[in-house]
């Protein structure tokens, strides 16, 4: 992979400008975006996309990178402000932009040449019914673009819009976000913050290593309270459906669904000491804040995978309001 360097002239420098201004989200515009004043535009914008990538690089996940101002991005700004000791309001300003390195950040995009391996293990379709899913061998990605969007922490439609002529076949080069490498280190304690819909991970010295958006339980199946511990970590787990916990469709018998990133718990399961509860991925990252969880804590697949690399058996997980 290589950093994105456009051979085209920069066609647009975007700031939080007057309402109604036409904002074109192109790779060139994202690279050139700079904060001047005001809040983020309500419509998709290059500035918002660049901000999301910089937050991701700082260990504060915005969820999906989609160029849209929304709940996940606002909660990420709040988390970054709190970690930096800044006033917490969830609104971009010059101080936040400077702290993220916005004025002097290196390229936030990269070029990726699609390989045959990128196109492997694609499935033709995924039914919604759990019984039909249980009859499959693998709950994989349905499109190469879906797989690559997750790899680069992006909304699939946003990736497609940045590469309008791409066919997503082997040998083709596309432009994608460059969210940086996984956060390193070892997590001693995790806080699941129900009121913020965020999960914060701390090292032995109380320093926040990472912070992610999450879906936490529901009124019918609330998440645990108090302290629990990590008991095991399973990558590409099977999913054991138990109708005593909740009923999906007309499925009244237990089922075992095969592994895959598009399974109900995504690509990783972090088991907790309270039976049936865990921290896990999701097959639908773009609607993370719009879906209730059946008592567990749901993250994007890439955030769940990073968290799994940071915790270990015995890591304390505290659920707080």
From TrEMBL:
InterPro entries: LD-transpeptidase, LD_TPept_cat_dom, Peptidoglycan-bd-like, PGBD-like_sf, PGBDSf, Transpep_catalytic_dom. GO terms for cellular component: extracellular region. The active site is at residues 280, 296. CDD domains: YkuD_like (cd16913). SUPFAM superfamilies: L,D-transpeptidase catalytic domain-like (SSF141523), PGBD-like (SSF47090). PROSITE patterns: LD_TPASE. Pathway: Cell wall biogenesis; peptidoglycan biosynthesis. One of its GO terms (biological process) is cell wall organization. Pfam families: PG_binding_1 (PF01471), YkuD (PF03734). The keyword Transcription does not apply. The keyword Signal applies. Residues 1-21 form the signal peptide. Residues 188-320 form the L,D-TPase catalytic domain. GO terms for molecular function: peptidoglycan L,D-transpeptidase activity; transferase activity. Gene3D superfamilies: L,D-transpeptidase catalytic domain-like (2.40.440.10), PGBD-like superfamily/PGBD (1.10.101.10). Keywords: Cell shape, Cell wall biogenesis/degradation, Peptidoglycan synthesis, Signal, Transferase. Belongs to the YkuD family. This is Murein L,D-transpeptidase. It comes from Rubellimicrobium rubrum.
């Amino acid at each position: 992979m290589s950093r994105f360097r456009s051979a085209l002239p920069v066609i647009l420098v975007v700031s939080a400008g007057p309402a109604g201004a036409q904002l074109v989200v192109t790779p060139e515009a994202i690279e050139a975006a700079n904060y001047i004043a005001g809040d983020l535009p309500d419509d998709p914008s290059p500035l918002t996309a660049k901000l999301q990538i910089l937050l991701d690089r700082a260990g504060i996940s915005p969820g999906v990178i989609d160029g849209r101002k929304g709940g996940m991005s606002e909660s990420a700004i709040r988390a970054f402000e709190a970690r930096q000791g800044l006033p917490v309001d969830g609104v971009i300003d010059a101080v936040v932009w400077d702290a993220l390195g916005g004025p002097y950040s290196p390229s936030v995009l990269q070029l990726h040449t699609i390989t045959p391996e990128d196109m492997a293990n694609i499935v033709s379709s995924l039914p919604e019914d759990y019984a039909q899913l249980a009859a499959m061998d693998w709950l994989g990605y349905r499109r190469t673009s879906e797989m690559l969007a997750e790899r680069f922490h992006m909304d699939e439609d946003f990736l497609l819009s940045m590469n309008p002529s791409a066919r997503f076949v082997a040998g083709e080069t596309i432009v994608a976000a460059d969210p940086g490498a996984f956060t390193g280190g070892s997590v001693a304690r995790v806080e699941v913050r129900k009121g913020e819909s965020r999960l914060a991970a701390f090292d032995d010295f109380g320093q926040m290593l990472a912070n992610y958006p999450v879906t936490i339980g529901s009124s019918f199946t609330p998440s645990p309270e108090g302290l629990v511990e990590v008991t095991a970590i399973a990558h590409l787990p099977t999913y054991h459906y138990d109708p005593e916990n909740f009923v999906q469709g007309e499925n009244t018998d237990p089922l075992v669904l095969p592994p895959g990133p598009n399974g109900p718990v995504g690509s990783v399961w972090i088991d907790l000491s309270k039976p049936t509860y865990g921290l896990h991925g999701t097959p639908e990252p773009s609607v993370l804040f719009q879906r209730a969880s059946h008592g567990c804590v749901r993250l994007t697949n890439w955030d769940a995978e990073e968290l799994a690399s940071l915790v270990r058996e015995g890591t304390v997980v505290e659920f707080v309001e």
